Each structure stands twice: as C-alpha cells, then as structure tokens.
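Thread title: Can someone regenerate the structure for this chain?

I was given the following input by a collaborator and told the matching structure tokens would be attached. They weren't. Posting the sequence so someone can regenerate them.
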Amino acid sequence: MSDQTLFEQIVEGEIPSYTVYEDETTYAFLDVNPLAPGHTLVIPKEPYERLEDMPAGAAADVFGVLGEIAAAVEAAVDADATTIAINNGEAAGQEVPHVHWHVVPQFEDGTARPIHVMFDGADLSDDEMETVAERIRDNQ
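Best answer:
Regenerated them for you:
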C-alpha cells in the first residue's frame, strides 16, 4: 500500500487521469466524479494537505494557473461561468488530503448554483460581526 495520496499517484502516472495542464509545480485534471462536464481539479504537485501548509510561492504558482484553467474550461464546454472552490480540511468536505481547487462550469440554463446554497447562513449582529473580525485579525 502506498503512503502517497491519490493525487500524488495521479501526478506520478501510477493512476490514469484526463490531464488538462501540467507544469513544474501545478497539475490539473478532470474530476472523475464531475459535478458538470469539464469539472477540473487543480493541484500543487507537492502534497500539501491544506492551503495554509503551502508556501506562498507554491500557492501563487497554482493560483496563477487557476484563471487560465477556468477560461479554458468555460470555452471547452461553452459554460457561462465557473465556480472555483476549495474544501480546506476534512471538516469542510476535503476527501483527499492534498490541497486542490475545483473548477466547476456553471450554465445560465437554471442549473447554476451559488456557493451560498451549501450553507444555512448565520444571522449575526453587528457586535458579533466585529468580534469575529477582530478574532480573525488577531490570528493572522
């Protein structure tokens, strides 16, 4: 049994993928369980588990490619837009412990879903909002 993540095995060619992009630091391939035609995963080749584990330069490399991939996905499947999302940690729904961005095509035919449909929402007072903002600032 390999200690490598599923995505490391894909990058190494041990598991086949529908690769759409590759450079020295970044790899992109079609999701095998697509939410829409063209649903693509964009990953760093190094196996950082979460976004905050990535060095700034590696994150910048991957993020620099995301816009190009999103535009290519939209053009390839004639999508009107894309949703770009990351599940950062198991509690957020991350299934593979290797940071990755989902590029999901969206269409104006009524099937598009904003990210807000994933959550019930939080009704916070101005004081609660300020307290949360202050705690975030303090933890940077």
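Residues 43 and 100 are 5 Å apart (CA to CA).
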